[in-house]
Amino acid sequence: IPDHYEDALESVLIPHGVIMDRVEKLAKLIVQEATGPLVVCCVLKGGHQFFADLVNYIKKNVTRGGKTVPLSLEFIKVKSYSGETSGEVKLSLTEEECQEFQGKNILIVEDIIDTGKTMVQLLQKLKQYSPESVKVASLLIKKTPLSNGYIPEYVGFAIPNAFVVGYALDYNEYFRDLDHICVINDHGKMKYAIKN
Ligand code: PRP
Ligand code: MN
Ligand code: MG
Question: Which among 66, 115, 136, 141 would be 20 to 30 A from 158, CA to CA?
Fold first, then answer.
């Protein structure tokens, strides 16, 4: 734990090593179940660390003589946690870039499914571009009464209803630079609150 976060955290929920073991297993499963080339689509910003490690493990699987599958990489920024209950998601891709999804096997890579709103809306959008298939890998799914019931094809860990940070998950853009997935404490929420 870096010094600057030492007093801001309640507990370590998932240590970095445990995350990496799980990501490696998910990578193997994804390659096993792949039916052709994959467009691996990173949901920024929170998904970037999981995406990077997942793609690395898929490459290693190939190096070790396992089944190979060609990957192309895509990045999208989606906005949520806005406090709005309806609010359509906005994709950062141009219309032309979205047309590229037609006929492809897409794997969306996300850090966390909380209410599920972001993912349900993202899937709805992507399906308008007639991909061959769309699957979702989320490192975390939160057990919350606010869930809309959406469950991804690949899940790393189901976690309790707590505000978690680290491994690219943020609180006001902080804590992305933390290896472990941790629960933030009240002091941390104050220390890293938005200041105007
Ligand atoms: C967070 C998280 C998911 C989404 C989950 O992203 O990374 O994308 O919210 O919430 P939901 O299931 O309730 O829709 P955020 O909008 O904070 O952006 P970020 O990834 O850039 O931090
Ligand atoms: Mn996100
Ligand atoms: Mg965020």
Answer: 66
Q: Is 48 in the pocket of ligand 1 (CB under 6 A)?
A: no
Q: Which ligand is nearest to the CA of 142?
A: 1
Tokens of 7: 């007093």
Overall CATH class of domain 18-159: alpha beta
Tokens at 196, concatenated: 């105007």
Query: Mean pLDDT for each consecutive 10-residue tract of the chain (196 residues)?
Result: 96 98 96 95 97 95 76 89 61 88 97 96 94 98 97 98 98 98 98 88
Q: If you write DSSP's letter for every residue of 103-143 in order, what string do you get? A: T-EEEEEEEEESSSHHHHHHHHHHHTT--SEEEEEEEEEE-
Find tokens 């037609």 and name the residue.
102
Angstrom distance (rounded) from CA 175 to CA 119: 23
Ligand 1 nearest-atom number relative to CA 142: 12
